[in-house]
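okkk here we go again. third time trying to get the flavin-adenine dinucleotide bound version out, last two times i messed up the smiles copy paste (missing a bracket lol). double checked this time i swear
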Amino acid sequence: MCYDVLIVGKGIAGNTLALTLLEKGLRIKVVDHPRSNSPSRLAVGLYSPFTGKRTTRTWLAEKLFPFLEEFYGRIEKKTDSSFLHARSAYRPFLSHLDYNDWTGRGSEENATSFLNPSPDHAHYSPWILNPLGGIEYTHSGYVDTVSYLEAGETLLNQNNCLITDYFNYDDVEETEDGITWKNDHYRYIVFCEGIHAMQNPFFPQIPIVPNKGEVLILHIPDLPLKEIVTQGVFMVQKQAGEFYVGSTYRWKFDQEEPEERGAQEIKEKLGKWLKVSYEQTQLRAGVRPASKDRRPLMGYLNARPRFLIFNGLGTKGVSLAPYWAEELSQLIIHQKDLPEEVDIRRFYLN
Ligand SMILES: Cc1cc2nc3c(=O)[nH]c(=O)nc-3n(C[C@H](O)[C@H](O)[C@H](O)COP(=O)(O)OP(=O)(O)OC[C@H]3O[C@@H](n4cnc5c(N)ncnc54)[C@H](O)[C@@H]3O)c2cc1C
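finally!!
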């Protein structure tokens, strides 16, 4: 049989690319060997137009956020499921330095349509320390990534596209106009294996940097906040009384399992602004596929233009995947070049 694209890996990257290509009528297959601790299953799934210690606008926020809301909303409708949860986010100021830094930059940030011009600080005060006020923004929320991956599975199964198997790199053969894998021909193969791409022989010395993250799940029955609160760490209520708090970012680690020091780090930051007590119910950990320059790794190397990659989504898989899957589909269908800042060839000499 002849197909357009074989996708290897069905985390947030592979799932999103598969659904994008299906919507455009391409004939695809997706091969995935699911792992319960893959970052796409463990991710809290937050998306936010402001990030980082200094609360700066997320790279390409104006493009990414309207795009992701439309994309996930469309997949929800198609699968009659619900995984996109829009929630505004509140960030209290904890010091005069913090307050002054924001007001110094405020006019630039205020020009965006993301900020609420007059947050109701009193709404947060019973639970959140905010004597200096804070900022509130919209176009933020979370994607329940497990439900999203399940919705993808439903659509892929309806189209007979999903193969649950381990992909062995030795089984692929390059041809003049594509590749063959297990007796089928594909015009392109796209690798979306997360950190496992570090073993991919077609992208030697790939600049992926594994980044370990931990998340705490807390039981706080009397905290009615629906909004995300973020200051050093974020906190979001997913089920009644069940709050996800995270995350840690560790570049050096010798185990993938959750570590107590991760829990302590999160609790210390949370203790600076959360006024109520809680009970810890779970600590989870996963390893994010980050890139050396914190930008996606996409496209092909000149020696093998039929072998593509979609990786390096790092800490922001949920917000980056829909927009960049669309751009990759334009490369596959119309040979439209990718912007240099995401093109994997930026790291290679030829
Ligand atoms: C603790 C934590 C919290 C996070 N919170 C957020 C958040 O709030 N918001 C956000 O946007 N992002 C968050 N992230 C980051 C997010 O999880 C990643 O950006 C995203 O999951 C990367 O997806 P991926 O598809 O590239 O990789 P993966 O999730 O690793 O998916 C790769 C898939 O490929 C499969 N695979 C690999 N090799 C093979 C093979 N040879 N054969 C078959 N299958 C294979 C794997 O089994 C897996 O299913 C978080 C991550 C962690 C660890």
